[in-house]
Known about the structure:
With 234 residues, the protein is of the alpha+beta class. The protein has helices spanning 3-16, 37-53, 83-87, 168-176, 197-205, 223-233, and strands spanning 25-27, 34-36, 58-61, 74-81, 94-101, 104-112, 117-122, 125-128, 131-132, 145-147, 162-164, 182-186, 209-213, 216-220. It folds into 2 domains: 3-132, Fructose-1,6-Bisphosphatase, Chain A, domain 1 (2-Layer Sandwich); 145-233, D-Maltodextrin-Binding Protein, domain 2 (3-Layer(aba) Sandwich), CATH 3.40.190. The strands form 3 sheets. The protein has a 7-stranded mixed sheet with strand order 3-4-5-6-7-8-9, sandwiched between helices. It has a 5-stranded mixed sheet with strand order 11-10-12-14-13, with helices on both faces. It has a two-stranded antiparallel sheet with strand order 1-2. Helix 1 runs antiparallel to helix 2 (37-53) and helix 4 (168-176) runs parallel beside helix 5. The longest helix has 17 residues, at 37-53.
Amino acid sequence: MEEITKFLINTIKQASKLINCNIEVYKKDDQGDLVTCFDYEIEKFITKELNTHYPSFKILSEEFNSKAQVEDNYFVIDPIDGTINFANNLPLWGIQVACIKNNEVCSAVIYLPDLNEIYYADSTGAYFNNNLINVQQNPNNKGLYFTQNKKLFSFFNNTRNCRYIGCASVTYAWFIKKCCSGVVLTCDNIKKNWDHTPGFYIAKQAGAYILNKNNLFVLGSTPQNAEHLLSIIE
């Protein structure tokens, strides 16, 4: 594990301790999205730590720096991914951060506090709860797929084999954990998206086979899984 990864793990775990029962929930937009007081508090805490220890790096984050112009060296922060789940006491949510250096993702961490699961990756590989993991080893071949977007359900002829979790970090994490054969998602810029940058990098470092068709991404545990999933949604 590299030093930056250790730092991100420690920072995220410390940030998670800010959460208590005194939750305040606010309406974020007219589409039903929510934000909580802890989205704000956690982002402030992580941002302060990153600015202190990596002052030359910029910050792209969901709540306070969503329109930041970042290039070359920066961090991507999602303080609470899956806020609607979190606000409704559904434990499928996470805190995630990625580090981009010289315009390449070099480290990423996903922490699922309620499930006591941590996923991270850097140049040394991908890890689940401190154990090296590779999705190509003993892959899940039972035909269950995850999607990151409810709209993508329209691609599937049989939605019994598809799951929408409502949280990108959990979607990636459980693919890495081999709970499904593949994931389908859409993303315009995979290096500048707080929902996808951390999980996509960890999945890649875990050996995911990746297909990209006009920013429609298909991740499979094997080439056969990915190609089969692409054939379903084309």
